[in-house]
Structures are given as C-alpha cells and as structure tokens.
Write a structure and sequence with these properties.
This protein has 9 helices and 10 strands. By secondary structure, the protein is of the alpha/beta class. The protein has one domain: Rossmann fold (3-Layer(aba) Sandwich), CATH 3.40.50. The strands form 2 sheets. An 8-stranded mixed beta sheet has the order 3-2-1-4-5-6-10-8, with helices on both faces. Strands 7-9 form a two-stranded parallel ribbon. Helix 2 links the parallel strand 2 and strand 3. The chain starts with a strand and ends with a strand. The relative contact order is 0.16. The model has no long low-confidence stretch (mean pLDDT 96). It binds NADP nicotinamide-adenine-dinucleotide phosphate.
Length: 241
C-alpha cells in the first residue's frame, strides 16, 4: 500500500511518516522543503519526496502523484507564527483537502482511496448531537472570529462531511480529532470516541502526537478499524496513567 502524506515535515506528520515506513509501507510526502524532513526518514528507501507547496500544484499534477496511492493523510496545520496563523493561505487545510479529494476523483480508481484528516477536538461533528455549554459556545465563537485556523479546521472537515460525503465512489474518509496535543516519546494507550467526552475548551484532554500518528497509521493499515470509523470524526484521547 502506498500513502501520500501532506504536512509530513510537521510534528505529527513526521511521526506518521516514520510509523508507516517502519510498518514496511511505501510513502510519498509532499513537502515545501526536503530539509525540514527529519534525517532519519529523509533517505529511507521506501520514501518518495515531492517538493511542492500543495496549494500551488496544478490539479492534474496532484492527480498524477496520487495515481498509485491507496491512502492519503493530511497533518497540515498553520505554523504557529503571526504569518502562519494570520497570513495567507488562511484556508490552508480546507483548500488542501478539497484539492486532494478532487484530484483523487480525477483518477480512475478501482477502489475508494482512504483519506485521513488530522483535525481538532475543538471542532464539532455536525452529524451528531454534540452540545456545547454557553461558555464553550461563546469562547469557540470568539476563537473562530479571531483565530483563522479554527474556522479552517472546521471547514476542512465540512468539505469531507458535506461535499465528498459518505457515498463517494472515489474517496472514503476519517477525520481524526485530537484534543490538546503533547509530545511523548512512545505510543501509549489511547481511546477513540465518536464525540468528545469532555470540553475541549474548559476541560481539555490530552493527546500525544505520536498517538495521533499511530492512530492514523492504524486506520490506513487496518481495514476493520477503517470500516468502523469511516465517514466519522473520532476524538482521540490519551489514557491518563
Ligand atoms: N496544538 C494543539 O493542541 C492542537 C490540538 C488539536 C489539533 N491541532 C491541529 O493539529 C494539526 C497539526 O499539528 P502539528 O503540531 O503536527 O502541526 P505542525 O508541526 O505545525 O505542522 C504543520 C505542517 O503543515 C505544513 N504547512 C504549514 N503551512 C503550510 C503551507 N502554507 N503550505 C504547505 N504546508 C504548510 C508545515 O510545513 P512546513 O514544515 O513547510 O512549514 C508542516 O508540515 C493542526 O492542524 C492543528 O490545528 C492542534
């Protein structure tokens, strides 16, 4: 199986890349700069590097890169700088996910391609009843207004939920929603839930990036897990010890 990863130079994307390579998989990464890939994975024999900014790539070229991929993962996120958070492209994740889904659709696929999107527990799955307290509504409304990546994450998930949908012959998808990200050395026990079990705003849980990467890799590799969660937006929490 071959997977294309967008955002592979990021803190989570690099862990996902490593995890799939360690599982013996073929991986293609689309990166703005090869130098930003950790050295340990940069020269791996099963890794193909495409140096391109995904939003600048013509759709036909992207479709060409995707033609031999059975899975696609996005760990894209706005860099946490003033330019990254407030500058263009303000719809980085939304536009990238739409481009990826459209490019997959251009290819004549024999089986649906798996698309896994890294999102946030601060986003609701509008298919489900995920009520927010008044305080949470107020704070999320303010964040949405003031911090562009929040609405970008929300709209990116909506592209899959509404535009791609659940009966698409070319694309099946899972939106992974971690809560507050932390860094840990090793994969630890974690749980998946259809909806948040605690408030991402007033009582956030913790999710380590390496567990997010492990979960995304397992979804790609384990068809039973994929069947269980496809078309859904599981929330991932570390099991606290
Ligand atoms: N912080 C939290 O607690 C939290 C919680 C839940 C979810 N999240 C979400 O998790 C996601 C990933 O988190 P992370 O910490 O792994 O991210 P990260 O380390 O900041 O990685 C971001 C990735 O996006 C790429 N990127 C940024 N701007 C780009 C652009 N204009 N064009 C192409 N690529 C671009 C970066 O590439 P370069 O290396 O080239 O810059 C990098 O590969 C984010 O979407 C974030 O919203 C965060």
């Amino acid at each position: 199986m071959k997977t294309l990863i967008a955002g592979a130079t990021g803190a989570t994307g690099s862990l996902l890349t490593r995890s799939l390579l360690e599982a013996g998989q073929d991986v293609k990464v689309m990166v703005r700069s090869t130098d930003r890939l950790p050295e340990a994975i940069r020269n791996h024999k099963n890794l193909e590097i495409i140096e391109a900014a995904i939003l600048d790539l013509p759709n036909e070229q992207l479709a060409g890169h995707l033609a031999d991929c059975q899975a696609v993962a996005s760990c894209l996120g706005h860099n946490l700088t003033m330019k990254g958070v407030f500058g263009p492209p303000r719809k980085l994740v939304t536009d990238a996910v739409r481009k990826l889904a459209e490019a997959i659709g251009q290819n004549k696929v024999t089986a649906p391609v798996k698309l896994v999107l890294m999102n946030t527990a601060g986003n609701r799955n509008r298919d489900l009843n995920e009520p927010l307290s008044f305080a949470d509504q107020l704070i999320i409304g303010l964040i949405r207004l003031l911090v562009p990546p929040q609405s970008d994450n929300e709209q990116a998930a909506e592209v899959l939920r509404k535009d791609v949908g659940r009966n698409n012959p070319a694309v099946e998808w899972v939106v992974i929603r971690p809560d507050s990200l932390i860094d840990e050395e090793h994969v630890t026990e974690y749980t998946l839930h259809a909806s948040p079990t605690q408030s991402a705003i007033t009582n956030p849980g913790k999710t380590s990036r390496i567990n997010v990467a492990d979960c995304m890799a397992r979804l790609i590799l384990d068809n039973d897990l994929w069947e269980k969660w496809k078309g859904q937006m599981p929330v991932v929490y570390n099991v606290s010890t």
